[in-house]
């Protein structure tokens, strides 16, 4: 079975075509600048050179159409016709309390997904556009929605409730939802295999660290707490996001900077985080370069990030009553040797002991803890596309 995995952003489409016989990626690519001047499709077929196709792409339907054309192209295509695509798996950011697992998309499901757009206004409409585009171009192909929030629906109320009036939770759904669930689920499953244990018998802390970051406590294979909250703004300091702050800061910012609700939301999501603290960049590689040259604000931003990740690791070890493994994943977690070292430093009291030589690695599954470390520490590259494909296969096989 060949599964087409689609991840639509507001002006982009990431995609992979995966052959589920051996879970190999047949082709992958990225459509950028949808509806903007300079639209481009970068298509990479397995075993062939990368192809860059520049043309106007006014909307997601046209973007998906160009991707499908690339997949069947005589020169750089990988399939003879679209009939070879057996199913489509869509990444959907928010499932609210309605969806606690992946689902086959029906008209009713699509309406429910669309109705949740207020929960994720930057992402959900784009996800819906991608689904509608695939339905229009492949009307007879099964479509599956895989939700970022679904894995976290196992959190108990003590973890997901906020201290607002209970009526606000019931009326408006104001609670912690968590995100990056597909990634946390995938890497915790791989970690359990590396531990040689049934995941039901494990306590694992997964650190998805990138431009957007979240940490999750996975107890017995279930998410019991996570750092992101009602939106992906909550939790640790991120590339351009504040992370957790005193909520009373918000009205002060609005008053002092003359911002309305939309303005302060944009400010906290786009202008803060390590970018705002450092004044240098939201890219951790740029921060490390600047810090190495003596930039104190860049160093402060890096130190704040590592401190906050460490604080969540300690909190989640306490919440679960112990921890068997800590996992680093995503762009920073997989590639930043210093961040992993700094997060683990000081966790010796938990039984964490990092091996400096093993930690000198990027982007491949590795145990980076010392042989005598009581808590295993792993680098596990995430593979959200494969996880989406696996769920799609499971549902469509039924």
TrEMBL record:
The keyword ATP-binding applies. Mg(2+). Can also accept Mn(2+). One of its GO terms (biological process) is acetate metabolic process. Substrate binds at residue 91. Its cofactor is Mg(2+); Mn(2+). It catalyses: acetate + ATP = acetyl phosphate + ADP. One of its GO terms (molecular function) is ATP binding. Pathway: Metabolic intermediate biosynthesis; acetyl-CoA biosynthesis; acetyl-CoA from acetate: step 1/2. ATP binds at residues 14, 208-212, 283-285, 331-335. The record marks 180, 241 as: Transition state stabilizer. Gene3D superfamilies: 3.30.420.40. Its EC number is 2.7.2.1. The keyword Metal-binding applies. Mg(2+) binds at residues 7, 384. One of its GO terms (cellular component) is cytoplasm. Keywords: ATP-binding, Cytoplasm, Kinase, Magnesium, Metal-binding, Nucleotide-binding, Transferase. Pfam families: Acetate_kinase. It is found in: Cytoplasm. The active site is at residue 148. InterPro entries: Ac/propionate_kinase, Aliphatic_acid_kin_short-chain, Aliphatic_acid_kinase_CS, ATPase_NBD. Homodimer. Catalyzes the formation of acetyl phosphate from acetate and ATP. Can also catalyze the reverse reaction. Belongs to the acetokinase family. This is Acetate kinase. It comes from Acidaminococcus fermentans.
């Amino acid at each position: 079975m060949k599964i087409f995995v689609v991840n639509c952003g507001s002006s982009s489409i990431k995609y992979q075509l995966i052959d589920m016989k051996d879970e190999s990626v047949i082709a992958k690519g990225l459509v950028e600048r949808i509806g903007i001047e300079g639209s481009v499709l970068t298509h990479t077929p397995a075993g062939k050179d990368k192809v860059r196709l520049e043309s106007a792409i006014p909307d997601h339907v046209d973007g998906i159409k160009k991707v499908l054309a690339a997949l069947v192209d005589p020169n750089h295509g990988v399939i003879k016709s679209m009939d070879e695509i057996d199913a489509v798996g869509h990444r959907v950011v928010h499932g609210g309390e309605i969806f606690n697992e992946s689902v086959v998309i029906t008209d009713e499901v699509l309406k429910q997904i669309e109705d949740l757009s207020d929960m994720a206004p930057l992402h959900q409409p784009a996800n819906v556009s991608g689904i509608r585009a695939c339905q229009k171009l492949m009307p007879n192909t099964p479509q599956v929605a895989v939700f970022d929030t679904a894995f976290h629906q196992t959190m108990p109320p003590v973890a997901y409730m906020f201290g607002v009036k209970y009526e606000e939770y019931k009326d408006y759904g104001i609670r912690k939802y968590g995100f990056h669930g597909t990634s946390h689920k995938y890497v915790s499953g791989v970690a359990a295999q590396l531990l040689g244990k049934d995941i039901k018998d494990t306590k694992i802390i997964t650190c998805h660290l990138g431009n957007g970051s979240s940490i999750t406590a996975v107890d017995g294979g279930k998410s019991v707490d996570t750092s992101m909250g009602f939106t992906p703004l909550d939790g640790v300091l991120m590339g351009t996001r504040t992370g957790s702050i005193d909520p009373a800061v918000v009205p002060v910012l609005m008053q002092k900077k003359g911002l309305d609700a939309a303005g302060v939301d944009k400010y906290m999501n786009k202008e803060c985080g390590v970018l705002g603290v450092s004044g240098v960049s939201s890219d951790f590689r740029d921060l490390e370069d600047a810090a190495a040259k003596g930039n104190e604000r860049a160093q402060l931003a890096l130190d704040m990030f590592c401190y906050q990740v460490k604080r969540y690791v300690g909190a989640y070890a306490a919440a679960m009553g112990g921890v068997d493994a800590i996992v680093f994943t995503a762009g920073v977690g997989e590639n930043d040797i210093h961040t992993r070292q700094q997060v683990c430093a000081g966790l010796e009291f938990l039984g964490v002991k990092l091996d400096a030589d093993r930690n000198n690695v990027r982007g491949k599954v590795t145990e980076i803890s010392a042989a005598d470390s009581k808590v295993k520490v792993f680098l596990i590259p995430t593979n959200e596309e494969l996880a989406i494909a696996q769920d799609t296969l499971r549902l469509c096989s039924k």
